[in-house]
Amino acid sequence: MKGAPQDIIGNDDTLDSTGRTYFGDHLTADAIAATQAHPLYRHIQRLNLIRRGIPALQKAPLSQVNEWGSGMSFVRDFNNGESYVVVGLAIGGDQAITVGNVRSGPYVDAVTGNRLSAPATVRCRSRFGPIPPVSMSLTVRARSARMECI
Questions:
Q1: Quick one: what percent of the chain has pLDDT higher than 90?
Q2: pLDDT at position 20, please?
Q3: Residues 77 and 30 both lie in one domain
Q4: Looking at 35-143, which runs of residues are DSSP E strands?
């Protein structure tokens, strides 16, 4: 950031002490095109676009956090449902994840844009009044994430 004080003193500064990553020659004018074409760069770029498009992923606190040896799930609720996301993460193998007590509503997969099919997709209101919170079951592929948003 222009005008910021220098906080990196030398070659021995590490990510844990500075919060910065060194990319070396990957960001030079000669190498930037190859860097931007790399699959890891593209993946991080897609994740940033998803995060930028969902306020709950940017600003909402984590709740209903569940962790186990090969994955985790959590919910982020911004402004009492203005933006709401249920996230499942998997490492190793595919994971069947169930998250209870989530808001009812029409969920959309943040990566594919697919709507979650019935019966998990429910209406927020019926002629009898509000529908109570529901459970959501997700299958998350190995080394992947799934984000369902209202």
A1: 17
A2: 65
A3: no
A4: 62-68, 71-78, 83-90, 95-102, 108-109, 125-126, 129-130, 134-140
